[in-house]
Automatic annotation (TrEMBL), chain A:
A GO term for molecular function: ubiquitin conjugating enzyme activity
Gene3D superfamilies attached to this UniProt entry: Ubiquitin Conjugating Enzyme
Record's keyword terms, sorted: ATP-binding, Nucleotide-binding, Transferase, Ubl conjugation pathway
Its biological purpose: Accepts ubiquitin from the E1 complex and catalyzes its covalent attachment to other proteins. In vitro catalyzes 'Lys-48'-, as well as 'Lys-63'-linked polyubiquitination. May be involved in degradation of muscle-specific proteins. Mediates polyubiquitination of CYP3A4.
Positions of the UBC core domain: 3-163
Active site: 88
GO BP annotations, alphabetical order: protein modification by small protein conjugation
Cited Pfam families: UQ_con
Record protein name field: E2 ubiquitin-conjugating enzyme
CDD domains for the chain: UBCc_UBE2G1
UniProt key word Cell division: no
E.C. no: 2.3.2.23
Family: Belongs to the ubiquitin-conjugating enzyme family.
TrEMBL record, chain B:
Name the record gives this protein: Ubiquitin-like domain-containing protein
Pfam families: ubiquitin, UBQLN1
Ubiquitin-like domain: residues covered: 5-80
Keywords: DNA damage, DNA repair, Repeat
Sequence ranges of Polar residues compositional bias: 218-229, 272-282
GO biological process per UniProt: nucleotide-excision repair; proteasome-mediated ubiquitin-dependent protein catabolic process
Lineage of origin: Eukaryota, Metazoa, Ecdysozoa, Nematoda, Chromadorea
DNA repair as UniProt keyword: yes
Amino acid sequence: MEQSSLLLKKQLAELRRVPVDGFSAGLADDNDIYKWEVLVIGPPDTLYEGGFFKAILDFPRDYPQKPPKMKFTSEIWHPNIDKEGNVCISILHDPGDDKWGYERPEERWLPVHTVETILLSVISMLTDPNFESPANVDAAKMQRENYTDFKKKVAQCVRKSQEE
Amino acid sequence: MTDLIKINAKTPTATYDVEIAPGATVSELKDQLLTKVANATKSQLCVIYTGKILKDEETLDQLKIGDGYTVHLVVRSAAAPRPAPAAAAPTQPTPQQPTPNIFGAGAMPSAQSMMNNPEMMRQVMDNPMVQSMLSNPEFMRTMLTSNPQFQQMLERNPEVGHILNDPSIMRQTMEMIRNPNMFQEMMRNHDLAMRNLQGIPGGEAALERLYNDVQAPLLNSTTGGNNPFASLRNEAGRDRSDRAGQENSEALPNPWGPPAGAGAGAATGTASNESVGNNQQPTPVPGLGGMLNSPGMSSLMQQMMSNPEMTRSLFSPEMMRTMRETMRSNPSLMDSIIGASPAGQANPQLSNLMRQRLPEMLEMMENPEMIQAMQNPRVAEAFRQIQEGVSILRTEAPQLLGMMG
């Protein structure tokens, strides 16, 4: 069996028994270890509190050499999540040097990362958006210039996620 | 019957463990959890496992949740029910005065409903005018000393009097009203300090003395239900005194997580407020809301309005100017005050009228003669009498009042 699937099975079993605060993870399809379904619980004391945001983690066969992709399937309005739901954080970027020179290699994907460390980064991203490299420029702009509207929009997403 | 399995349900702040049959449904798991989670209804509980929100009819063995497993538990905040303010309901016809006066008959219920709504309270507290008022120790002193409940407490516990002479304590108290999180943080720090003290030889005795001298009278003074801060002592506070003398080995409450109810309630309160634009619905929040709702607090408001001296300082030119400025620069605040007042809610015409007349009112407040008149204690007294009269009319002969309106 491939190293990647062994590793993922191990992480999955651990998370099933003792889940980590703030998110819950399982398989989207019991027969496909490379496709995970994650539910991110809106972190307390943030605009996202009360929301249950669904996301899919897509692992490559050469995991953990290469990072998984994370995509929210619930609508979520955030500067670092593009409008298709793709999460844009440095640790999910392929390892190596950034061709634009923004990110240092150690901020990008490293094989030591696990589902847990990825999700913890995502939760901290919800708490503290990074304005430097917004994936959703409109959301970033709105947060800076019209915070009231931004809050409203996030609250809508939170409500919607509760109904799903 | 097979052996029970142990399941841990983890919320951001606490972990509850229950023992349950392996074939039990999620619904049965929730029933078990309800016995442990304070102040929650079944529909508020949300059990999450392997990336899914579990449905009531699913069973644990289907889900492969075994002994010693942990699931996530989220206690949703209660859907904000609209509390029917007792004061406003039976007394519908509020007289429509020619020029609606914010300090007239409508003002009292509005103050009360304002107190019910923490978000609005925060807005009010953040208002520069209110802040300048509160940072004036002299003003606060008059306000507190003329409150009968506070006087009573002072008579019984003269040592508390120094609070009045210390503006920083006052400020802290006000900050506390504005910010429930800060209150919790303060409590946490106190708990920590207490625990450290208990570890020192002789510390126990010092604590006991402290308790007898300060805390006991303070707590006793809350039993009458007259103390505005009484209801701040929620569940956790109540057993504080019972625990006296025992070592506190419990984990400190996590200041970042919403403790059952309060935090979560406040936050979704905010979210639901957002949905209705700026028109807040009073959202009940256990603790803070209770305190603001307490008879003591509302009487404080009432007495603030009926004290001529207080009214005079309220109407001082400086105060008027800031008030005018805030009202003009922030029409939405005014709008939400009007919208949230039970009188306004019950009577859309009245609130519309008030909104329309807002510019006129602002103009009126700029008129120096008007300001002078308002500063006249006898005018204030007259206002008070009118208000009293209207409230007597309202209770004694509501029909009559309806005719006039």
